[in-house]
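Task: complex structure prediction.
Instruction: return C-alpha cells for all chains below.
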Amino acid sequence: MKIVGICGSVRAKSLNMMALKTVVGLLPAEVSFEYARIDDFPMYNQDIQDGPGIPAVVQRVADQVRAADCVLFATPEYNWSLPPLLKNGIDWVARTKDQPFAGKQMALMGATVGTFGTARSQLHLRDIMIPLDGRMMNRPPVMIPQAQNKFDADGKLTDQPTMDVLKMFATNLVAWAAAGKK
Amino acid sequence: MKIVGICGSVRAKSLNMMALKTVVGLLPAEVSFEYARIDDFPMYNQDIQDGPGIPAVVQRVADQVRAADCVLFATPEYNWSLPPLLKNGIDWVARTKDQPFAGKQMALMGATVGTFGTARSQLHLRDIMIPLDGRMMNRPPVMIPQAQNKFDADGKLTDQPTMDVLKMFATNLVAWAAAGKK
Amino acid sequence: MKIVGICGSVRAKSLNMMALKTVVGLLPAEVSFEYARIDDFPMYNQDIQDGPGIPAVVQRVADQVRAADCVLFATPEYNWSLPPLLKNGIDWVARTKDQPFAGKQMALMGATVGTFGTARSQLHLRDIMIPLDGRMMNRPPVMIPQAQNKFDADGKLTDQPTMDVLKMFATNLVAWAAAGKK
Amino acid sequence: MKIVGICGSVRAKSLNMMALKTVVGLLPAEVSFEYARIDDFPMYNQDIQDGPGIPAVVQRVADQVRAADCVLFATPEYNWSLPPLLKNGIDWVARTKDQPFAGKQMALMGATVGTFGTARSQLHLRDIMIPLDGRMMNRPPVMIPQAQNKFDADGKLTDQPTMDVLKMFATNLVAWAAAGKK
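Output:
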C-alpha cells in the first residue's frame, strides 16, 4: 500500500510537518509512504500551461498521486484558509492529464499556533476537493491547536491526547486507503 | 477618492482583468484608481518574513492598500476557490505592520468560463477577509459566467445585462468607498 | 438495494420534489426507493430530547436511513443555505442512538428558480455531513437553475440537457450505493 | 440607540442565552435592548407565504429588526451549522416586505460545549447574511468553547478571559450600531 503526503508548509520548523511525520511513524511497516514536493512549482498561471506546458516538477507529483492509494494533506491555516503553497500545488496537479485526484482516497490534518487548529482551512480544502472528486476521510478530525506547545525541540510529539488522536487517525487512514484499492 | 484594484489573474487575456477594466472605465472622474501588482511576490513562507523580512514589493502593495479608501478584488475561480496568486498576495500583505486590510472598505467581483461565475471562490475570499476585518460590499453580486462570450477581441464588454450590473456595481462601489472615508 | 430520499421542500409544487421524482424514475427496477418524511418533526430543541426523548417520527426516519444503502437529498436554497426544514430533519436524526448517517453513502441534488442552482446550499449540506461522517458523492453535480422553466405542469422534466445530467447522476448513484454495501 | 437580540436556542438553560445576557448587561444605559422571539414561527414553507401570507409573529420580528440600529445574533452550532430554529427565523423575516436585514448593522456570537465555540456555524450565518446584505461586525470574534464550565448555576459568567472578550465585544457593538445610524 502506498500513501503520498503533501505538506502545506516548507518552514524549517514546520509544525505541520512535525505532525505529518508523527503520523508516518505510526503507519504499519507494509505501508510505503513518500512525500510529494510542491515548493518548486511556479505560481500557477494558465498561460504557462497553454504555452510551455505542464512543468516536469508538477507532472512528477501528479504521477506520485496517481500511483498512490491515498493522499494525506497536512495544512496550516493562514487567514482562515489554506496556504497559497498548498493551493498552488493542488491547482497545478489538477490540470494534468487524467487529473489524478479523481476518485482518490484522501485525508487531511492540520496544526496551528492558534486555538482553532485549522478548522477553517480544512473546510476550504474539503471544498476544493469536491470538483476534483477527492474522497476525503472524515474521522477523526485532526485539528491541533497550540501546536507549538505539543512538540519538543526535536519535533517529537509530547502531548498524549494528541498522540491518541493521531493513532486513531493512522489506523483509520490505512483502512481508508485500503478501501480505495482497486 | 482612491480605489486600488487587485486582480487574481495575470494571464495575458485575463477575463477578470477585462471585467475589472470595465468597472474602472465606469468610475467617475474624481476617483483615482490604481492597480496593485502581486505577481512579483515570492511564495509565502513565514521563514522569509522571520529572516530577510517583508519583501519590498509586498510593502509597496501594503502602502497602496493603506492609502486607498477601498480595495476592489477581481478573482477567478480554480477548483471552487481563489487562485494561489491572489491568496499569496493577501497573505503577504496581511503580515505587514498595522495590516492594512483592517477596517478597510472592499468589494469583489469575478468572471469564469464556466456556469457559476466564481460563486464559490467569492465565498472563500469573503471568509479570508473576516479575520483581517475587511468590510466587504454585498451588492450587487458580480459573478460573470461564460465570460469568454461576453467580451470582444479587444477586451470590450459586449453583453448588455452584464454591463447593467457593472454600472450598478460601480455606483455602489463609489458610495461604499465614501462610507469608509475618515 | 435500498435508497431513501429526503426532500428539503414540502411545497405542493416543489421543484426539488419534481427533480427527485425524475431521478427515482431513472433508477433500475432492482432498486427499492422510499421517501423519508421530515415535515412532521417538531423544531429541534435539546430539551425535548433530554425530556420526552426522541420523537417517534424522528426514530422512524433514523431507522429508514439505517436500513438504506444510500441517502439521496434534494435541497432548495434559501439565503445561500439549506432550508430549516432539512436542517431540522438532519439535526434530529443525528441525535438518535448510533446515529445512522455515520459511514453512510449519500448524494445530493438541488433545483432553484434562480441562476446558481443551489451551489451554496449544497456546500453547506456537505459541511454538515462532515462531523456526521456521511460519504457524499461528488459527481456529477446536480444544480438545476431556472428550474421553473424545465418542468411542465405535470412535473415532468422537459429539458434535455438536465435529463442527460440526471441520467448520469442516477447511474453513478446506484454505483455509489453499491460501494457502501457491506 | 436600539439593539435587538436573536438567540438560536430556546433551551431552558441555554448557554447562548447566558452569553447573550452577559453582553446585554455590559451595554451602556443609553442602549435600548430587546429580544426578538422566533420560536413561535411555523416551519418555513413558501406555500404559507403565498397562501395565508406572512404570519403576524414573523411581521412583529421584522418590525423589531427594522426599528433597530443593530441586530445581535447568538448562535449554537449543531453539526457545524446553525440550528434550524435560527435559520427558520431568518428565512421568514427575509421574506417580509422591504426585507429588514438589508443594510442593517449586525454582529454574532456563539457558545458551545465543544472545543470550537461555533467557529463553523458562524461561517454559515455570515454566508446567509451576504444575499440579505447584512453588515456583520468582524471583531472581536466571540466563540466560547467549553461554555458549560464558564457560567455558574445562575447563568453568571465566571471566566475572566471570556469576560474580557465580551467587554471588548460590547464596546465594539455600540460603535458598530452607531455607524449604521441614519
